[in-house]
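Protein 1 of 2
SEQ + STRUCT:
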Amino acid sequence: MDIHFISSLTPDDEDRLAPALLEALKPMLGLMPIAYTIRIRTASNAVYQHTRTELEHPEEPLEVDEPRATG
């Protein structure tokens, strides 16, 4: 999944907001059993990034219901 946001902030405001946005997103994504990279590039070309490649506490595998025959 690749998500892009277009901001109407000034470049200076983007540079101030980007680190806080990154810190706000990390705990939310940390709740999901996925590896991810968050990369924020501001209008001034500053890049803020966080990557999680391994799960710290792998959960039990998700159970998937098998298709049932009908009839």
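Protein 2 of 2
SEQ + STRUCT:
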Amino acid sequence: MKNKILTSISTLSTLMLFIPWTILPLRSFDWALKSPVAEIMITCYAVFMIFSGAFTITSYAGGKVQNNLMKICLIVNSIYAVGGAAVLGMMILPKIM
């Protein structure tokens, strides 16, 4: 039972690697480039990237899911999380100041 849970966590983290790249085909539409839709879409993707990074870090460290696939997911999702936090910071800081 534990092996199935660990495998499903690894699979979920692996799927989280590819979801942020779905923004590229969406941004080819004209409606996705207009102001309110673009901001909402980028914010949602950034929040998802931060969530996937936190989920992978928690699964790797706290859940003891430490196989080779999970190490790759940890590195990539951590980079995504930092990038998502940077994007959110660039969106929020000008509105605050």
